[in-house]
Design brief:
By secondary structure, the chain is of the alpha+beta class. It has 21 helices and 23 strands. A 6-stranded mixed sheet has the order 15-19-20-18-17-16. The protein has a 5-stranded antiparallel sheet with strand order 4-1-3-2-5, with helices on one face.
């Protein structure tokens, strides 16, 4: 009987990617002057496992490529070969290539044969001669597989953004503009996936481009352009005249020559889409489909299930011949059932919890590569790596963390000569720290760099029209300006920053997880960015409030206090609506029935209750009829089951079977401001 080996492929890929992470970590920690033999053995074992597994599954390209790497590592661990920085750098590049090969094979996309051959040649050269000759070292990823010294004359690029790419703040127009600056660009626009005009969502992208880029352009320059969106699009980059069919031949749609794309250009409107072909696009999720769970967590769940079975058996026995004499036992059984259920919920949630080290592990390599590229001496210090949070939260916080780390590397930390002139050590420190605080996880990104230049930030904000010219702001408010959409102080465009992807994208992604971002900085001393996130997106501690016949859930983490208003605490400010005074400060009032509709029991602010909430340093009062109680609720996505509603983050089913909406505090504030602005404009027009 033959065995279908394909059923084990997913496990092989997961274990291989874990092995590559181990190899990368150990290579970064390797002391080239006095390498630890166990470290070399660890790297060798990971490479050997990948080679063996790939051979078993018939992935011969991976097996052949890894064989040379394994031979090199074998000589290093036997002491036959000296471990040099040149060798370590090449092995790190080899890890990158292996990761790209495995990703391409898993997603059934073409291998980058040119990059594979160049790296393979370098390994062979190092293995044969002990170093890489200048002829081989100068080979780049863009060289052809036939002759490494041949100049590339152009590239075929197939760029199809995923439908949600715009929601992350990335703009295809900016990407096309950057590509056009590299050479002569000819595009084939595909609008075949556009829905009918009345169904178009402006936050969704249904367009695609097949691009021919001519000129002596390096592959790495193209990679830099797509660095921010590589996980948010279907992307294929092949050399002109390569074995693959060119994108233009695959989809002869509407052609246009774009020698230069200027600011303000946009993608062609739907009416111009004249495609007669259909392009099939598949979005491959970057999130892991499985999770490894410690046996202790599984044992705990099994034990609790056993307790539940015992409790169920007891209640079943009571129900067979129930009488009032057994009422006490029934109550006791129900209490035990409640206890077992609560413990089971906690243990199951623990199974989804993973150490944040899984999100942190990409940064040693990132800091290593970026610091070398920028000529800076930076040491990365990570603490709290074993702090646990929900797997879904961790997978989605990765990109915002990358933005913050890159921001510190590029804008925050100075070059060694600048640090010495300022009386600082030439080696800078970048810190990543995680810890639990209440029901949240706090992640801090710190650096001892130059800090924010408050005068420059304010001047840039005024220049870009983000604040009035006569604005006088305290330092904390100036720091928050860098979080506004469109703000940038980058004078030049680099592969690290300046491509129109701002800190507002980071804020948006963090808020989508129910979190907040705080900025602290002191000029000359450094900066700290603090992210606060819920431990899980599945369960929420909330306060149930009533407005008329409707129930709403307010996240407990957002509530400051609840108060009964007195007449002397109220005020009406022109252009700002109703406000209340609390401890010598005035805050706005939001009437939930005005936002979401419905009939309240009272419209008199002194008869209802005010729930004081806080978000991003802003406080306001939510006017409700009644406070009911606090409870943990299971969050159900409203967007998946119905549609997205501003000011609402989800829904839950209460104990009585009714549905309650969960309030999104930041979204509610924005919605209230929009409602107030509309009302103010209407009053001005009527006047």
């Amino acid at each position: 009987m033959s065995i279908d080996m394909s059923q084990f492929l997913d496990t092989f890929y997961e274990e291989s990617f874990e092995g590559l992470e181990i190899m990368e970590t150990e290579l970064l920690d390797l002391d080239t002057g006095n390498a630890d033999s166990e470290t070399i053995n660890t790297i060798f074992r990971a490479a050997h496992s990948i080679k063996g597994g790939s051979g078993t599954f018939g992935l011969n390209a991976v097996a052949d490529f890894t064989h040379v790497m394994e031979t090199l590592l074998d000589e290093m661990r036997d002491g036959k070969r000296q471990i040099t920085q040149e060798a370590v750098n090449l092995l790190l590049t080899t890890v990158d290539v292996l990761r790209e090969m495995l990703t391409a094979l898993r997603e059934n996309t073409p291998l980058d044969d040119g990059r594979i051959k160049v790296t393979h040649n370098k390994l062979e050269e190092l293995l044969a001669n002990g170093s890489i000759s200048s002829a081989v070292a100068e080979q780049t990823t863009g060289t052809t597989t036939e002759q490494a010294t041949t100049e590339v004359q152009g590239w075929n690029i197939r760029f199809y953004p995923h439908i949600d790419m715009l929601k992350t703040g990335n703009d295809p127009v900016r990407i096309l503009r950057e590509l056009a600056s590299l050479g002569e660009m000819k595009t084939t626009f595909d609008g075949s996936a556009l829905p009918a005009f009345e169904n178009i969502d402006p936050e969704e992208c249904h367009l695609g481009w097949d691009i021919v880029l001519k000129g002596d352009v390096k592959r790495e320059d193209i990679n830099e352009v797509f660095a921010w969106v590589e996980d948010e699009c279907d992307l294929s980059i092949t050399e002109l005249g390569g074995a693959e069919e060119s994108p233009a031949e695959q989809a002869p749609i509407t052609e246009e020559v774009i020698p230069q794309v200027t600011a303000g250009d946009a993608a062609p409107p739907p009416a111009e889409a004249k495609s007669t072909s259909t392009v099939t696009k598949s979005k491959t999720s970057s999130e892991s489909a499985s999770i490894r769970v410690g046996i202790d967590k599984v044992d705990s769940v099994i034990n609790l299930v056993g307790e539940l079975v015992i409790t169920q058996s007891m209640l079943s026995t009571l129900g067979q011949d129930f009488n009032t004499k057994n009422l006490g036992k029934l109550v006791q059984g129900l209490e035990q059932l409640e206890l077992n259920t609560r413990e089971l919920q906690e243990q199951v949630m623990r199974m989804r919890m993973m150490p944040i080290n899984f999100a942190f592990q990409r940064f040693p390599r990132l800091v290593h590569d970026m610091s070398q590229k920028m000529g800076k001496n930076i040491v990365l210090k990570m603490t709290g790596e074993q702090t646990e949070l929900d797997k879904t939260v961790m997978e989605k916080i990765g990109d915002p963390l990358v933005h913050l780390v890159r921001n510190s590397l590029d804008h925050g930390i100075e070059k060694p000569e600048q640090r010495k002139a300022a009386g600082k050590p030439d080696i800078a420190t970048l810190g990543l720290n995680a810890y639990h605080q209440g029901g949240n996880i706090v992640i801090e990104v710190t650096d001892d760099g130059a800090g924010l230049n408050e005068e420059r930030v304010l001047a840039k904000a005024i220049e870009q029209g983000l604040v009035p010219a006569d604005a006088e702001l305290d330092p904390s408010k100036i720091h928050e300006l860098i979080l506004l959409p469109g703000f940038s102080t980058a004078e030049t465009i680099t592969d690290v920053s300046g491509r129109g992807v701002g800190m507002d994208v980071v804020v948006k992604n963090i808020r989508s997880l129910g979190g907040t971002l705080e900025v602290w900085s002191k000029q000359g001393e450094g900066s700290k960015f603090t992210i606060r996130l819920p431990l899980t997106l599945a369960i929420l501690d909330g306060q149930t409030v009533a407005v008329g016949d409707e129930d709403y859930i307010i996240p407990l983490v957002s509530i400051v206090e609840s108060i009964q208003l007195k007449p002397d605490m109220l005020n009406v400010v022109v252009g700002k609506g109703e406000t209340f005074k609390l401890r010598d400060e005035h805050f706005p009032i939001i009437r939930l029935h005005n936002i979401f509709g419905g009939e309240p029991r009272t419209t008199d602010l002194t008869e209802g209750l005010l729930v004081v909430v806080e978000s991003d340093g802003r406080r306001m009062g939510l006017f409700v009829d009644e406070l009911k109680g606090q409870q943990q609720v299971v969050i159900k996505s409203l967007e998946v089951n119905y549609k997205r509603i501003e000011g609402i983050s989800g829904a839950t089913i209460l104990g009585d079977g009714s549905v309650a909406l969960i309030i999104d505090i930041p979204g509610l504030i924005n919605l209230s401001n929009q409602t107030l602005a509309t009302a103010t404009n209407s009053l001005k027009k009527s006047a």
